[in-house]
Amino acid sequence: MPLLYVENEKTFRRLQEEIMKTTDDQSLFAWADPDLQQNQLTGLLARQPKSFANLKNIHSMGIWGKGNVFGMTNRGIRVKFYIIPTGEDSRNFVASLDCSI
């Protein structure tokens, strides 16, 4: 991976971390990376700006109130989501974000 790409990825991550300090809008976590392969795992933050390109109409709903805050800790991102099991296998869940398309 070229060094410039890695640095741009780190810079975009730092930008998202700074945004997290000023908002409780969970739409920050609503992204789709066109370069990810099916079933490829990734972190909670997007790797690149184009991950938000096709999601221009997402907005915060604010229905969960101000209690669902998130932020950075010394161990990573701390966040509370409502989670829904994906089936009978209790090891897989989907997180529900407080935002809408």
Automatic annotation (TrEMBL):
Domain DUF8212: 11-42
InterPro entries according to UniProt: DUF8212
Protein name: DUF8212 domain-containing protein
Species name: Lepidopterella palustris CBS 459.81
Upper lineage: Eukaryota, Fungi, Dikarya, Ascomycota, Pezizomycotina
